[in-house]
Amino acid sequence: MFFGEYRHSLDSKNRIIVPAKLRQELGATFTLTKGLDGCLNIYTNDEWNQRLEKLLKLPQTKKEVRMYIRSLTSKATVCECDGQGRIQIPAFLKNEGSLQKNCVIVGAGDHVELWAEELWDSYLTTANDSLEDIAESLTEYM
Q1: Helical (H) or strand (E) element with 81
Q2: pLDDT of 44-68, one tens digit each?
Q3: Which residues contact residue 97 at a Cβ distance below 8 angstroms, ignoring those fewer than 6 apart?
Q4: Nearest one of 119, 85, 87 to 100, comparing CA atoms
Q5: CB neighbours of 90 closer than 8 A, spacing ≥ 6?
Q6: Which residues make Cβ contacts (< 8 Å) with residue 63, sequence separation at least 6?
Q7: Phi and psi dihedrals of 84, rounded to 5?
Q8: Under DSSP, is residue 96 helix (H, G, I), strand (E, B) or coil?
Q9: pLDDT tens figures, 85-133
Q10: Whole-model pTM?
């Protein structure tokens, strides 16, 4: 289970440190891809494979299904931490996530998210302002 918020910076070679607590759970290799709400998602190999299996069971005759699968898989890349615990963010994903220098790595339960600091701060402010309303609307699912 992934949780916590960590602030790190991209270096000049587009590398970022993955916090040790998260690295241990992610394993030796993992998948980085486009996420929702403007972030990038990092999945363990098991979680990525489970998600793909579920996606591929959706009706491929639906245009939205094909678009969603293509959006995720075309942006996916396998990552491995170097000896200093860093991963390199490919340029196409750096652009997808609007990543600049300052980034936030967020544990999101079954995956990890990588956010541009400004986007995360804005998103979190909006979410926090609505947290009680959101919690109330979710009670039927809990």
Answers
A1: none
A2: 999 999 999 999 999 999 999 999 9
A3: 34, 35, 38, 39, 40, 89, 114, 115, 116
A4: 119
A5: 14, 77
A6: none
A7: -105, 10
A8: helix
A9: 999 999 999 999 999 999 999 999 999 999 999 999 999 999 888 888 8
A10: 0.92
